[in-house]
């Protein structure tokens, strides 16, 4: 299994002083104040026990309600399973797959989940500047297509028309669609929606770690079609018992839309700032979502791991090497998960570092 | 994959009024007050971020220290990985196995973890009254032996001599030993220890859900030998990112030995009470650890699922059917995880139910 290199970089970076951390995909903003209050209440009420394996029913109702408000899509709470972050949701979803196709670059853990469950895994290359799958590229004999929009690391977002085409392609060809929607909410266009709008048989995975700013609480969810609910619940009973209970109570108060709209605005401001600062030194596709810039460093290096290590040691900026996402030796991923002042410092250090290469 | 039936029973039982819950393996006692205070502090300090994948170093140091105090065994914090409950620890451990042998009856999820990772899995039958593996029974071509002591559901405990023999057998035959020690602490004899005392290459799995009374916090640990640390860390990076942060801070304060000694005494009292109440109506091997009675119901039924459902519906006592643990149609598992008053009510109801069969 391949290391998730960003976690190694993080470990190394935390041991150094004065580093600007632009490596890990972790929002620096706190969750809504309501979440903190809900946690204090749950601790005081000693909610230290297991919940049912699928998670608290009231939380599943809140999530169903979120789909109505956010996408105008009707979901039954019964089709929702609360998971420990999204990682375990992928483990559950992959159980239903034989051969999984997914665009590359993409989230590196996907391939490792497939490896753990001994599933075949194929990558379909996407290209600068939009990094999106086209229908033409969907050739090959796979039974499962896994997409993520916004994409990590590129920040690309399928618009509603593009998503509809992929959804219909999967329905028509009886391909299981797994849609990773973890960065929904952190999208800087209005033209996007959930895969469930166009494919009732899709498995949708989302969670509270990004938009809702609750990464360390390790809480996510998945929505599964009727015919897979019972089997998915059984796997959850085994690999989760149940998701962390305090985190489930916290999540009940996470849908604070006024606060969340400010979170989105803040990340959009940061994207605009850092993209404008760096776009002339690297080719970068302007991301429409998430909080990453996928930067082509080929002018300076074709060894992204060395580049990232040098940048950390010499310039005190931590970024993720492209090799974390596959064979991308001439890319780095920069997270804009710090405030504008830190991004300013980071951008200045990156520019100085490059000047001295 | 087979359902973890106890979770279904729990779900059904929670919808009924006035049920005595003797089904799930969940201590009813709260954790030490220090744990609650640590949680409140961590929430107030907004510890909502990821930790390193292996978990907080200070927590790994505390756990290493626990091995010194509890077993007089030296463990390096670097060999410890903090996991989300023990479930993910098993997923990590099984990655290193090809063909896993384990005694039956045993924890039902083991087989499902093996199924998820497509590992071969064989069961070695153990028998009344001690339900333990003998060296003679360890025949067959497996590369991994998984033991649990105290055992769930039988409560059997390997004494130090028996454990030493198994440890040496594994070393000699180059078999990976995975030792599930989750119920350590809840042992009503002093003659037991950790597998690490006699097998430095074992993987030991333990957690805070039972003895430490923190089930809903979903926090456990595994200790891996030097040659597997890096690979285990990589899998943890992928499937955990990191264990829930608040739970990690809570666990720092869980080693309150004065409180824990009272937890043990309370469960021992309950074991003595319930065993004496029920031993004349069922054959039961007196358990030396954990908090379960494994009861042979063959005098009354050979359909444990129907028996458990009838007992729930007619007598309002929830228990786990033996079929949850394999082909044990004439057994039920009764948890003594409630106070003596509730156990009294439960025992009375069970006896009345049996009288009317």
| Annotated CATH architecture of the largest domain in chain A | 3-Layer(aba) Sandwich
Superfamily (CATH H level) name of the largest domain in chain A: Type I PLP-dependent aspartate aminotransferase-like (Major domain)
Element string of chain A (H = helix, E = strand): HEHHEHEHEEHEEEHHHEHEEEH
* Strand composition percent of chain A: 5-15%
Separation, N- and C-terminal Cα atoms of chain A? 33 Å
Biggest interface, chains and residues, is: A-B, 58 and 58 residues
Mean pLDDT of chain A: 96
Account of the 3D structure:
The structure is a homodimer of 357-residue chains. In chain A, 38% of the residues lie in helices and 14% in strands. Chain A has 357 residues and is an alpha/beta fold. Chain A has two domains: 5-25 and 257-355, Alpha-Beta Complex (Aspartate Aminotransferase, domain 1); 47-251, Type I PLP-dependent aspartate aminotransferase-like (Major domain) (Aspartate Aminotransferase, domain 2), CATH 3.40.640.10. A seven-stranded mixed β-sheet of chain A has the order 2-8-7-6-5-3-4, with helices on both faces. Chain A has a three-stranded antiparallel β-sheet with strand order 9-12-11. In chain A, strand 5, helix 6 (160-172) and strand 6 (176-180) form a beta-alpha-beta unit. In chain A, helix 2 (33-44) packs across helix 8 (245-251), helix 4 crosses helix 5 (109-116) and helix 9 (257-278) packs parallel to helix 11. The longest helix of chain A has 22 residues, at 257-278. Chain A is globular. The relative contact order of chain A is 0.18. The model of chain A has no long low-confidence stretch (mean pLDDT 96). At the A-B interface, helix 1, helix 2, helix 4, helix 5 and helix 7 of A face helix 1, helix 2, helix 4, helix 5 and helix 7 of B.
């Amino acid at each position: 299994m391949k290391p998730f290199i960003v976690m190694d970089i993080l470990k190394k970076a935390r041991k150094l002083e004065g580093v600007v951390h632009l490596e890990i995909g972790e929002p620096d903003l706190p969750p809504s104040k309501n979440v903190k209050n809900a946690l204090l209440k749950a601790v005081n009420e000693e909610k230290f026990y297991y919940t049912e394996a699928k998670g608290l029913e009231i939380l599943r109702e809140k999530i169903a309600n979120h789909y109505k408000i956010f996408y105008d899509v009707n979901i039954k709470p019964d089709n929702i399973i609360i998971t420990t972050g999204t990682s375990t949701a992928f483990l559950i979803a992959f159980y239903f797959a034989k051969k999984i196709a997914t665009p590359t670059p993409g989230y590196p853990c996907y391939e490792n989940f497939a490896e753990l469950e001994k599933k075949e895994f194929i990558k379909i290359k996407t290209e600068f500047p939009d990094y999106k799958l086209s229908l033409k590229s969907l050739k090959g004999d796979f039974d499962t297509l896994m997409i993520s929009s916004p994409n990590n690391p590129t920040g690309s977002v399928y618009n509603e028309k593009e998503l509809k085409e992929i959804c219909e392609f999967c329905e028509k060809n009886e391909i299981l669609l797994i849609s990773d929607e973890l960065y929904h909410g952190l999208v800087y266009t209005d033209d996007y929606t959930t895969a469930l709008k166009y494919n009732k048989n899709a498995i949708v995975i989302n969670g509270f770690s990004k938009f809702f700013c609750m990464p360390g609480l390790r809480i996510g969810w998945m929505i599964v079609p009727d015919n897979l609910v019972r089997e998915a619940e059984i796997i959850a009973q085994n690999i989760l018992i149940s998701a962390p209970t305090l985190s489930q109570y916290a999540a009940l108060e996470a849908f604070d839309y006024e606060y969340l709209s400010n979170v989105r605005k803040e990340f959009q401001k940061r994207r605009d700032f850092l993209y404008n600062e760096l776009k002339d030194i690297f080719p970068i596709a302007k991301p429409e979502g998430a909080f990453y810039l996928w930067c082509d460093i080929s002018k300076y290096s074709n060894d992204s791991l060395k580049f990232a290590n040098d940048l950390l040691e010499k310039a005190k900026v931590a970024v993720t090497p492209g090799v974390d996402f596959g064979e991308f030796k001439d890319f780095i991923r920069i997270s804009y998960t710090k405030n504008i002042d830190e991004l300013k410092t980071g951008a200045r250090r990156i520019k100085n570092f490059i000047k001295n290469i």
